[in-house]
Amino acid sequence: MTTIEFFGGIGVIGSSKIMISTPTARVLLDMGLDIPAERDLFRAPVRERPGFELRDRLAVGFAPEIPGVYDPAQLDPGATLGRPHHRSTAVFLSHAHLDHDGALGFLRPDVPVHAHPDTVLLEAAIAVSGTGGPGNRPELTPMTGTVTVGDIAVEAVPVDHDIPGACGFLVTTPDGTLAYTGDLNFHRDGARFSQGFVDRAAGVDMLVTETTMLSFDIPAGAGEPRTEAEVLDLAEEAMSRAPGLALVSMYVRDVDRAQRLMARAAAHGRTMVWPGQSAALLHHLGVEGVTTWDGSRPQTRCHVEAVARAEASGHGRIRTVSLDAVRASPSSFLIQPDVSDVPSLLDLPLAAPHRPPGTFLPFIHAQGEPLGPFMANWHTYMEWLERLDVTFVGIGSSGHATGEALHKMVMDIHPGVVVPIHGFRPEALQVDVPRLLPEYGTSYTLNGRALR
Question: What are the structural domain ranges in the chain?
Answer without folding.
Answer: 3-217+399-451, 228-394
